[in-house]
Amino acid sequence: ALEAAKAEAERTIETLREENAEAASALEASAAAGSKLEATEKEKRDAEKTLRTLREEKHAAEQKVAALEAAKAEAERTIETLREENAEAASALEASAAAGSKLEATEKEKRDAEKTLRTLREEKHAAEQKVAALEAAKA
């Protein structure tokens, strides 16, 4: 979805560039001709306004793509961190359960490790939902 949104934004930018070039060309032709029949002052002002509008739309599209890419990268980093923490907690829980001795893992430590594992799973799930929402928003 992110790639599709990025491609759509790039197509929009390209379309805006083409329209920008057309508007600039029309404005230049209007200025070169100079005759009232070929380009009135109103037409020139309209062409200039269109050119400004197209530049603003292009800038807004570029900003949206950059913001979505940054949000996706941050969400992916969060998921990776949570995966690492999840693996560490699962490993600690497995070691604790396997050892079984009071010296290696008390019941409190086991409960704490289980709680940590549950918390990390919930955080991972929340981060995955955030990524899905960002991708849906970008689409």
Structural notes for this entry:
The protein is mostly helical and 139 residues long. The protein has one domain (2-138). Helix content is 88%, strand content 0%. Helix 1 runs antiparallel to helix 2 (41-99) and helix 1 (2-33) packs parallel to helix 3. The longest helix has 59 residues, at 41-99. It is rod-shaped. The mean pLDDT is 83.
How many distinct domains?
1
Give the N-terminus to C-terminus distance in angstroms. Answer: 5 Å
Could you report the average pLDDT, rounded to the nearest whole number? 83
Uncertain regions: pLDDT < 50 for 5+ in a row? Answer: none
Biggest beta sheet summary: none
- Individual helix count: 3
Radius of gyration: 28 Å
**How many beta-strand segments?**
0
Oligomer: single chain
List the helices and strands and how they pair.
Layout: H1 2-33, H2 41-99, H3 107-138
Biased composition (Low complexity): 22-37, 88-103, 129-139
Region (Disordered): 21-53, 87-139
Biased composition (Basic and acidic residues): 38-53, 104-128
